Amino acid sequence: PFSSRGRRKMNLKSERRGIHVDQSELLCKKGCGYYGNPAWQGFCSKCWREEYHKARQKQIQEDWELAERLQREEEEAYASSQSTQGAQSLTFSKFEEKKTNEKTRKVTTVKKFFTASSRAGAKKAEIQEAKAPSPSIHRQASIETDRVSKEFIEFIRTYQKPGQDIYKQCKLFLDTMSHKRDLSIEEQSECAQDFYQNVADRLQTRWKVPPEKVEKAMDEVEKYIMTRQYKYVFCPETTDDEKKDLAVQKRIRALHWVTPQMLCVPVSEEIPEVSDMVVKAITDIIEMDSKRVPRDKLACITKCSKHIFNAIKITKNEPASADDFLPTLIYIVLKGNPPRLQSNIQYITRFCNPSRLMTGEDGYYFTNLCCAVAFIEKLDAQSLNLSQEDFDRFMTGQTSPKKQESDSFSPDVCLGVKQMCKSLDLLSQLNERQERIVSEAKKLEKDLIDWTDGITKEVEDIVEKYPLEIKPKSQALAAIDSENVENDKLPPPLQPQVYAG
Q1: 394 and 245, same structural domain?
Q2: What digits encode the pLDDT tens for the residues 452-491?
Q3: Residues 383 and 245 both lie in one domain
Q4: Residue spans with biased composition (Polar residues) (predicted)?
Q5: 417 vs 221, 267, 271, 281, 464, CA distance in Å?
Q6: Domain of 341?
Q7: How far apart are the first and last CA of the chain?
């Protein structure tokens, strides 16, 4: 409160101006005993701050309620528009026009979540603008994108003012990236990395957020940003990522014959637990392609790697080392043949939060996966301790490595596995026998052709050396008595007679 001397000076100034001052009018309106300031609506400085804070919080809460209500109305309108559009048949030209409009339209679902309006007229205009039909009603929104957006809004509520700043920065970044579609993927990657760095520095320096909360906030920012940007930056047409994917996939298919023994993999799939771990590792590395966020893709790689370590530990009864892990990871990649492997690696490299990619177990496992893919691309006979001839025969499919003999299996192996190995051995033998028969048949055919050609040539040489001359046909010999005219008068021929003695 003012001192008695201060009150006297204030009364004195008021009397000079001809104004009568009541002492009760100078007190704070809240009744705290302090003198109020007319510029602060009759409150003292302390009470005015409290009242301003309460009004601010009330305004923020009203904005949140308005945003939620608008989003519900938008979802209902979107559902009704979808049902209406389903009943209509669009021509191809209308479909193309709609697709073009969706690509070029700037979508704003809810505006100014956190900005409180100081004037009632401005607030009323804002409400009227928000109630207007949003162009996002007609867009083909992804369910996952909407879910991630809601989760992001719920998350930044807990950060109060830093959350407001995060949201504004994210919206600004998305709007900026929508106008930079023509940039190369490397330039877009640099923009994303700069954005991550700026947001992290802003939270640490300006808002003094603890490091663990900064890391959590950056994970949510990455999830929100990359879920919306996924279809534009994953395997874009301006890169050769798809070509590399096909090359790696073809290479892995050609290496289907590689066995764990060739790679020195310390994993025994005969153990049921180990076999389950191998299946889970393959499932995780394949599941990586279904994720949109780089952090989620890294999580799949990490889960796959942990299953590999568990499989090695169960097999060897001791902790696994890095020398054991990398060959096993190569074997898992060869056996699983993950889809779009190179595209996923490039996407993580370009748009993952650098703090996560450069440090921690996620970055370590991702580095090993890159090494495994590079090893597969350069795999040769020397890497597998094979001769070049055997390696070429395996690659061309002329033969395959010998499988494990059924007699060497442990008693615990099921009969189905033994029967399968016997069938594989029999098929391998039949394949070798068929190849031998085909080879001998081709050789016999060649010998027959050579023999026929030789005989034909010998006959031609003989005919050429001793040509065959065909003489005209000679006349038939006449009978002895043909010139005797009186042959009709000849006596009959003598007949032998037998006389009885």
Answers
A1: yes
A2: 999 999 999 988 888 877 777 766 665 555 566 566 666 7
A3: yes
A4: 79-90
A5: 49, 17, 12, 21, 70
A6: 240-398
A7: 197
- Judge residue 238's burial from the number of C-beta atoms within 10 Å of its C-beta, 0-12 exposed, 13-18 middle, 19 or more buried: exposed
Tens-place pLDDT, residues 317-352: 998 888 999 999 999 999 999 999 999 999 999 999
Q: Measured in whole angstroms, how far is the alpha carbon of residue 290 from the centre of its chain?
A: 6
Of the listed ranges 71-75, 80-84, 106-110, 243-247, the least confidently predicted one is: 106-110
Contact 372, 251 (CB under 8 A): no
pLDDT of residue 357: 87
Do 249 and 390 lie in one domain? The reply is yes
Distance CA 223, CA 208 (A): 23
Other Cβ atoms less than 10 A from the Cβ of 224: the count is: 23
| 49 and 70 inside one domain | yes
32 is a domain residue: no
Asked if the structure places residue 23 within a domain, the reply is no
Residue 212 and residue 251 in one domain:
no
**Residue 24: per-residue pLDDT:** 52
Which token pair is 420?
């399968």
In a domain, 492, yes or no: no
Does residue 251 sit in the same domain as residue 348? yes
CA distance linking residue 117 with residue 73, whole number of Å: 22
Are the C-beta atoms of residues 409 and 417 closer than 8 Å to each other? yes
